């Protein structure tokens, strides 16, 4: 306790320079804790949103999944449709004879012809007529915040009768254990945590360590004087730790206050694709003690380690003895990390993609942490090696002076470069995550395909569906019937029921099509399904509006049509059979797993207009927008936004670490700069020395960061299960970022050599 009090007394009574250092340490800790709080608050925000989603889940609805419950007199239908890159969720409900408690956010369930909408949906539907057509009924009120995942959610409850919702699930209550469509899927949330750990938490640990070691040289000389006056080794370490911990504690409190302000402001303005209620972002549970205890604990650890040399050999510190060269153990984390990363890259290059995802989910984060830590620990060793070899061979006086200083003190320049090096490494890793996310749930084709079960479309509605404005063409898709009890396996045949005119409206290429004649559809450069020989027979089950069944036997045609459309997934596979509608009995339609397919342009406005037109015919029908998963698109938008937040935080941390370390190093080096100036060195020479001392180790670290970052990115893509392993297109951007970092470091080093020469700076007491 005595040493701790002594440390606090030295903190307050050792001059203005020490108090300025304390304020810098406090400010740095506050920035770091605020960034840490942002990262730790993200899982809590997502969990709060998912909890509200789970609380409003109907206990059974047959939308987007099977409904097994038979209890409950009410009915519920879930419909999720794309609205741009967002998901529009509609819950059709009908009460039975037994009253049902309304979901959170509503005072009562809507009756037939009534609609309750979220506030943003209310605003948009007033401006977008097509969106309003998806909400049949009169708007009776708004859903309150308790029933919404976030303020910008597009959500609606639509009342109907039991007859209208006869295909719905049995509804008896709202509320479930989990959300059917979580804000972020658990597997994707693991990717987010993994990326944020590399982008934010690793640079943050380095930044906080830099803040805890400000004015390290002058502090070590002061601690060495205390040790020579009789203070014990542990006491000397405690004195140093008391100073750093006091700054860290104050900085933690200020950082939490800054986070509260940031949460209140940003939650109200929102981020692109991601918004939350301020209460969701409040820190509770483990994040609060981590912020209040973690930063001071790290400062205590760094303070004790930093004072170890002054406590062990105070005379060497007071006499400014040469530092010991860095040990080879700094390469220890880098070697196993690169071994794992290179192993995955080799596996991807040789076609032996790993299938054990459980093992990869452990090894990949471990490899990233090891490589990131290895970058930090190996830079002093590599910087000293570079400095020694350059100093031996160069004929330039400024470069030789700079390299000799880096050889004697390799850790000084590295502390300046570390934050920026980790930023480039994290940028490459984040690029790999974005590449993987871009491979899913997005339709980049010029046309959009819509499919719906033909059973759900009455014959009188089928014609209206095909005449919806914006629909380019339509067809009926089905498969031939096969006897499951037959001893002889016969594969079913894919069948397209359409005229040549309908086919040409949906396809970009149709050759050799003659109306009234069946034909095989062959898609160029695409393997066909196994089909029978020409002249073989296959049966089709048909049904009319009265429920009467009939079987038609179709012969495998000889004619071949070259077919190609522009949809994300081909309307018909190679080997499908085109049958003209005139070949079927009048009034009969295919029965077995038949679907009605519509096609339109894929721009968001047209997609919403077509969905609105379908809703005009039947608002409850389930439409599958092939190649577009509205819920997944919304998740990807959230993930990209959070990754952008992580990159911004990483940039803030990296730049702050550079500014703090560069300024501190310039102050620490004033005696050496003054000595060189008194010996006749020109200001231009001193600036060249300062720039070389920072830029060369930084350039070495950036080369290492770009190389290891690309290897880590490729290994991540190999283990991600996607189609892309190597991203050559991202290399120019990464190199441009690295060059920009070097330019910033160069410009930032120029003003750090003062113009005034003060001989008092080189006095020794």
Structure description:
- With 765 residues, the chain is of the alpha+beta class.
- It has helices spanning 2-13, 16-55, 119-127, 129-133, 186-212, 216-228, 233-269, 287-306, 308-312, 314-318, 334-349, 357-393, 397-408, 410-437, 459-466, 500-506, 604-617, 630-668, 670-678, 683-719, 731-749; strands at 74-83, 86-94, 114-117, 138-142, 154-159, 169-171, 447-453, 471-479, 494-497, 509-511, 519-522, 537-544, 549-555, 560-564, 576-579, 588-590, 595-601, 624-625.
- The strands form 3 sheets. The chain has a 9-stranded mixed beta sheet. Strands 4-3-5-2-1-6 form a 6-stranded mixed beta sheet.
- Helix 14 runs antiparallel to helix 21 (731-749) and helix 20 runs antiparallel to helix 21 (731-749).
- The chain is elongated and about 105 Å long.
- The model has no long low-confidence stretch (mean pLDDT 80).
Fold blueprint:
Layout: H1 2-13, H2 16-55, E1 74-83, E2 86-94, E3 114-117, H3 119-127, H4 129-133, E4 138-142, E5 154-159, E6 169-171, H5 186-212, H6 216-228, H7 233-269, H8 287-306, H9 308-312, H10 314-318, H11 334-349, H12 357-393, H13 397-408, H14 410-437, E7 447-453, H15 459-466, E8 471-479, E9 494-497, H16 500-506, E10 509-511, E11 519-522, E12 537-544, E13 549-555, E14 560-564, E15 576-579, E16 588-590, E17 595-601, H17 604-617, E18 624-625, H18 630-668, H19 670-678, H20 683-719, H21 731-749
Helix pairs in contact: 1-7, 2-5, 2-7, 2-8, 2-18, 5-8, 5-12, 5-14, 5-18, 6-7, 7-8, 11-12, 11-20, 12-13, 12-14, 12-20, 13-14, 13-20, 14-18, 14-20, 14-21, 20-21
């Amino acid at each position: 306790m005595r040493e701790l009090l002594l440390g606090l007394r030295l903190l307050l009574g050792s001059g203005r320079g020490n108090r300025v250092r304390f304020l810098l340490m406090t400010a740095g800790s506050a920035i770091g804790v605020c960034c840490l709080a942002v990262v730790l608050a993200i899982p809590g925000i997502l969990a709060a949103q998912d909890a509200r989603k789970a609380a409003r889940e109907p206990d059974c609805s047959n939308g987007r999944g099977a409904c097994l419950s038979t209890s409950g007199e009410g009915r519920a239908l879930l419909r999720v449709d794309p609205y741009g890159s967002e998901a529009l969720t509609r819950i059709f409900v009908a009460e039975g004879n037994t009253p049902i408690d309304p979901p959170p956010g509503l005072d009562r369930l809507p009756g037939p012809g009534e609609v309750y909408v979220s506030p943003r949906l209310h605003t948009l539907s007033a401006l977008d007529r097509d969106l309003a057509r998806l909400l049949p009924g009169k708007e009776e009120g708004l859903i309150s915040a308790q029933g919404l995942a976030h303020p910008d959610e597009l959500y609606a409850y639509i009342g109907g009768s039991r007859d209208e919702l006869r295909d719905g699930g049995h509804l008896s209550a709202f509320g479930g254990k989990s959300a059917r469509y979580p804000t972020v899927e658990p597997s994707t949330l693991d990717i987010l945590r993994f990326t944020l750990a590399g982008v934010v938490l690793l640079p943050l640990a380095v930044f906080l360590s830099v803040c805890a070691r400000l004015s390290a040289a002058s502090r070590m000389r002061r601690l060495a004087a205390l040790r020579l006056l009789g203070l014990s080794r542990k006491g000397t370490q405690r004195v140093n730790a008391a100073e750093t911990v006091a700054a860290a504690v104050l900085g933690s409190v200020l950082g939490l206050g800054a986070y509260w302000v940031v949460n209140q402001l940003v939650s109200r303005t929102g981020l692109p694709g991601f918004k939350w209620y301020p209460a969701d972002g409040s820190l509770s549970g483990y994040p609060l003690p981590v912020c209040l205890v973690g930063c001071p604990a790290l400062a205590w650890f760094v303070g004790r380690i930093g004072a170890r040399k002054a406590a062990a050999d105070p005379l060497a510190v007071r006499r400014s003895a040469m530092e010991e060269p860095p040990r080879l153990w700094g390469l220890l984390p880098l070697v196993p990390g690169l071994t794992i990363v290179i192993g995955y890259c080799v596996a991807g290059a040789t076609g032996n993609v790993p299938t054990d995802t459980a093992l990869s989910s452990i090894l990949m984060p471990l490899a990233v942490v090891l490589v990131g830590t290895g970058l930090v620990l190996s830079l002093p060793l590599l910087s000293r090696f570079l400095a020694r070899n350059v100093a031996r061979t160069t004929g330039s006086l400024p470069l030789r002076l700079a390299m000799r200083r880096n050889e004697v003190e390799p850790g000084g320049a590295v502390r300046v470069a570390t934050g920026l090096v980790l930023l480039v490494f994290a940028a490459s890793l984040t690029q790999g995550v974005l590449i993987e996310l871009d491979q899913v749930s997005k339709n980049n084709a010029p046309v959009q395909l819509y499919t719906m079960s033909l059973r759900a479309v009455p014959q009188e509605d089928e014609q209206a569906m095909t005449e919806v404005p914006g629909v380019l063409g339509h067809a009926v898709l089905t498969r031939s019937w096969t006897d499951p009890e037959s001893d002889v396996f016969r594969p079913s045949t894919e069948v397209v029921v359409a005229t040549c005119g309908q086919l040409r409206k949906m396809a970009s290429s149709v050759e050799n099509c003659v109306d009234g004649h069946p034909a095989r559809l062959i898609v160029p450069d695409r393997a066909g399904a196994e089909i029978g020989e020409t002249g073989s027979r296959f049966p089709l089950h048909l049904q009319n509006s009265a429920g009467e069944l009939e079987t038609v036997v179709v012969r495998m045609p000889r004619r071949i049509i070259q077919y190609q459309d522009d949809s994300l997934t081909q309307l018909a596979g190679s080997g499908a059979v085109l049958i003209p509608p005139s070949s079927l009995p009048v009034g009969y339609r295919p029965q077995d797993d038949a679907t009605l397919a519509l096609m339109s342009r894929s721009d968001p406005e047209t997609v919403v207009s077509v969905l609105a037109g379908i809703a005009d015919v039947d608002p409850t029908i389930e439409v599958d927008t092939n190649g577009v998963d509205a819920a997944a698109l919304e998740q990807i938008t959230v993930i990209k936004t959070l990754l952008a937040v992580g990159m911004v935080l990483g940039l803030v941390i990296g730049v702050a670490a550079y500014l703090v370390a560069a300024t501190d190093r310039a102050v620490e080096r004033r005696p050496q700069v003054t000595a060189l100036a008194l010996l006749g060195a020109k200001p231009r020479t001193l600036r060249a020395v300062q720039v070389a001392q920072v830029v060369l180790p930084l350039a070495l670290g950036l080369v290492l960061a770009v190389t290891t970052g690309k290897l880590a990115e490729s290994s991540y893509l190999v283990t991600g299960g996607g189609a892309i392993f190597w991203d050559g297109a991202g290399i120019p951007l990464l190199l441009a970022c690295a060059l920009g970092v070097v330019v910033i470091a160069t410009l930032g080093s120029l003003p750090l050599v003062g113009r005034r020469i003060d001989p008092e700076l080189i006095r020794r007491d």
